[in-house]
Amino acid sequence: MKKNYVLNMLFFLFMLTAHAQERGSVSGILKDSNGHLPGATIRTSDGKTTTSALDGSFNLAGFTAGECELSFSYIGYSPLVKKLYIQEGKTVDLGVIQLGGSGENEIEQVVVQGALANSQAKALNIQKTSSAIMNVIASDVIGKLPDRNAAEAVQRIQGVSIERDHGEGRYASVRGTPMQWNSTLINGNRMPTSEGTSDNTSGTRSSPLDIFPSEMIEFVQVAKAITPDMEGDAIGGSINFLTRTSAPSRIMKVSAGGGYNGQAEKGIYSGSLLYGDRFLNNKLSLIIGGSYWKRNWGTDNIEARYNFDDFSIQDYELRDYKGVRTTYGVNVGMEYNFNPAHRLFFRGILTDFQDRETALEHTFLYGEESFSQRRREGITGIGLFGGEIGASHRFVEDKLLLSWKLSSYETDMKNRKVDYAGGPGNDTYKMATFKTDAQYSNVASNGKAYLDMDAPNGYTGSTFQKFQPVFASPISTDDLTLNQLIALQTPSFERDKIAEADLRYQLNPDLAVKVGGKYKTKFLRRGSPMDIYINTGGNTTVADLGTTPYNFNGGFMRETGTDYSNVLFDGISLEQLDQLFTEQALTEGKYYHLARNQDDPDTAPSFYNGNEDVWAGYAMAEWRVDDKFDIVGGARYEHTALKYNGYEVKATADDATITPITNKSSFGSFLPMLHVKYKPLENFNIRGAYTRTFARANFSDLNPTERINPLSTVPSISRGNIHLKPTFANNFDLMAEYFFDNIGVASAGLFYKKLENVIYSAQSFQAIDGVMHRITQPENSENGWLAGFEVGISRRLSFLPGFWSGLGVDANYTFTDSKMEVPRYEEDQDGNIQRLVTEEVLPNQSKHLFNTAVFYENNKLMIRLAGNYRGAALALVQGNVENYRWYGKNFTMDLSANYRFNNKLSVFAEINNLTNEGLRYYHGDARRLEQLEHYSQRGMIGINYQIF
């Protein structure tokens, strides 16, 4: 059957090809002095239309012999009308049509000029002509903003928010949905993930974008309502990073910069190179890009843990982080055009992110009347490697387009070596904890410490920022005795291999059909081995090892105005930390060694691997009803097969047994979609869309590990759930867009998502062999919804007189609200288990998001002051509502400037976090902070030079 199907398809293609030259066609490539021009509208006098692709190419087929008119329209350029003569069965190749020139075949000069105008025009033309509801930014815009990784680049887009790690953007979310509900793509294929370091990202499908240098991006497309030819697991939206494929002409650019991080009080360095050229009579194009970014960073951090009943402070922690992050990347693009109908391409990418993190931590343990100091250091590295080869072929009067692509991408996260003379230099994250008994005097009569908002009568507390531990009697480094050593590894690996093909046929000038299929196989591996060495008899103290002075970096947490110098102690050096882990030191010392790996009952559940195979197919139609009305409709189907391997851990009276376990499951996802676009005016779109999308369960939720403890007061079982259904969303979108002639857009939209099978961590009770057990596992909830609206404007104020005509504004705002029904179980007064259903806001969903920027731009100068706001969001459901963990509201401001001396040389300057905004998490109430971080400002100056 399969063989016959293939033969029939080959015969069908042969028959189509046999008639390939019955009618004429027109092709060409649009570009300006800055590169290819995507999204241009090309229209014939008899109503045929098309748009230029991302590489500026276009093709119109089905011409009868004779004269015809071709009009070209592009935001920011005056329209052009060309008269052509078409010969029957011939293709007229117009070659390269230069925009912004003065030759016979060139469109008139751009209407608005400036450092960002051409790039913004490209992005807006893609957005205007797209079938999907999307926003787009181009590489040149990214390069002129103070954004050095992919996450920080997309935060400028309407409705996009990011989560930061030590002041740098890491994860992105669209319209306030949970991070894992958004798909991050490379050239249309989902990017493999690597393990996050924070609790709320570990084991999810979220891709850390700080590993992806912004210089490697040509375009970013944020699709908020997808079409059937896009991957369907995108409830919030898909963020597609398009890397460079070809060079429009010979080009070589270099950039170099240097700067300073105020918190680390050390330097920042960056550099990039871009080379491209065309060979073999312009048939072969090659482009190579490379980037390097090294930055010192620092973070001052305060954290607290509260008692859930009376909100007393259990422990209070002061952390001083310092580190060095290094990111480099190389991308290669090649394209060979056999003729206007056949094209072959290759894209490859390699990035490497390394974070060398050090910290000195002081923990005041009020709950157990002790004090500890911890010194730690390690290098975490994340590599992204992959590539793709593909082609496009036109047949049948250029009406039939066949595209195919083979891809392979992988990410690998692991610890890198930290070498010191005489040290072991192994690839682990090392931690040494020193501890002593301690009593505190700033406590209430019950022996507990409180913030002022929770203080009992007769006790004077303080705000979180002003809280300061006070020892009842002095302690010193002589009292801090080595407690334990930990050597930790955080490996993670994921690889995707993909094959896909698409077939598009233009039935007539107004109707095209498109079908396609994709196969993806994924392999992933997770697990965090750890060696713990507990000191059982040694009396080694911090003072014995020798100390290095505490580096206050101008004052620890100076933003709070509190002096912590009397409770912050000098710590051991990093070299001394490394020496504690030599084989000799570990052998001679009196340690009890615990190897936490897949053979240990406590850690075996964190080790698992899995395979996911996805078969996807779609069919869609693109119908141009008339000059004002377009419809795109179709459906996508994705079948997912899962196989996960983990461990079952069962406790006994004397020990625990560990048994390998394998679980399998599969599910299908049918995703109908309909898009309608109405154009009452040439520059005015009204879009409506219904789409059904989904989100697969997190990897950690599918982990088959089962932990059984029959010895607890209530016997318990905790496990993953391979049979989880994906979360589905029925999405309804309405969007209006008006595109200004002088490069800009005003937009407003509404969106509503009806959610099914939202996944949450559930507790239930089940009788097993007559004994009631507490079962903890991820489950699908009842129902939920998310809704909101967004408005935005990007406008150059060119109507103002003289100097003021260079002013402009970018501003957008998104409001989102949501509810999710979550079943809960509580024990009533009679000891009976009651099932309750409560409504919760979706995790990680901020009600308010906005971006605002004021800029000035002319032919030489660009200055931009930008602000980004993200409102409070639920981070973690724990206990009752008063104990929920929340992400605090955040507003950052950045400044960038660029001055162009001529067409080759420009200089730039940028400052991040002008207002020294911090990161906040709070416990139920915004005044009861759980975590506060500050990073100070960082800035850079540099040059860009175009050699040719």
What features would you describe in this structure?
The protein has 948 residues and is mainly beta. Among the domains are: 21-98, Immunoglobulin-like (Sandwich), CATH 2.60.40.10; 117-243, TonB-dependent receptor, plug domain (Ferric Hydroxamate Uptake Protein, Chain A, domain 1). 6% of the residues lie in helices and 57% in strands. The chain has a 22-stranded antiparallel β-barrel. Strands 9-14-15-12-13 form a 5-stranded mixed sheet. Strand 46 and strand 47 (905-912) form a beta hairpin. The model is unreliable at 9-22, 102-112 and 196-201 (pLDDT under 50). This is TonB-dependent receptor.
CATH topology of the domain at 117-243: Ferric Hydroxamate Uptake Protein, Chain A, domain 1
Strand content: over 45%
What low-confidence regions span 5 or more consecutive residues with pLDDT below 50?
9-22, 102-112, 196-201
- Morphology call: globular
Largest pleated sheet: 22 strands, antiparallel, barrel
Number of helices: 8
Number of strands: 50
> Which CATH class of the domain at 117-243?
Mainly Beta
What structural category arises from helix and sheet content? mainly beta
Instruction: Tell me the CATH superfamily of the domain at 117-243.
Output: TonB-dependent receptor, plug domain
Straight-line distance between termini: 56 Å
Radius of gyration: 30 Å
Determine the fraction of residues in helical runs and give it as a percent range: under 10%
The CATH architecture category of the domain at 117-243 equals: Beta Complex
The averaged pLDDT comes out at 85
Signal peptide: 1-20
InterPro entries: Beta-barrel_TonB, Beta-barrel_TonB_sf, Carb-bd-like_fold, Plug_dom, Plug_dom_sf, TonB-dep_rcpt-like, TonB_rcpt_bac
GO cellular component, one term: cell outer membrane
Domain TonB-dependent receptor-like beta-barrel: 465-914
